[in-house]
């Protein structure tokens, strides 16, 4: 499964989307729940979220 995570400039998770499903609804739901529990992404050494993450988001690939 692949999830796209979009963040704010402070690193807070603004939204997440399933790009491709694993085919197992329970697994997909568990992965989304784990993303929701992250609350935010860590900032870089300069205290900012990299511009590429703000523009394109972060793709997370998870295998069952």
Q: Secondary-structure element order, as H and E?
A: EEHHE
Compute the average pLDDT: 92
Radius of gyration based on Cα positions: 12 Å
Classify the secondary structure makeup into a structural class. Answer: alpha+beta
Number of strands: 3
Helix amount: 25-40%
Topology readout:
Blueprint: E1 2-7, E2 13-20, H1 25-38, H2 51-56, E3 58-61
Antiparallel strand pairs: 1-2, 1-3
Task: Please provide a written account of the structure.
A three-stranded antiparallel beta sheet has the order 2-1-3. With 64 residues, the chain is α+β, with helices and mostly antiparallel strands.
Question: What's a concise summary of this model?
Answer:
This protein has 64 residues and is of the alpha+beta class. The protein has 2 helices and 3 strands; from the N terminus they run E-E-H-H-E.
């Amino acid at each position: 499964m692949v999830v796209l995570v979009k963040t704010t400039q402070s690193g807070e998770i603004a939204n997440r989307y399933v790009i491709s499903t694993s085919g197992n609804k329970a697994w997909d739901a568990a992965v989304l729940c784990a993303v929701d529990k992250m609350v935010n992404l860590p900032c870089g050494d300069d205290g900012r979220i990299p511009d590429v993450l703000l523009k394109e988001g972060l793709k997370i690939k998870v295998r069952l």
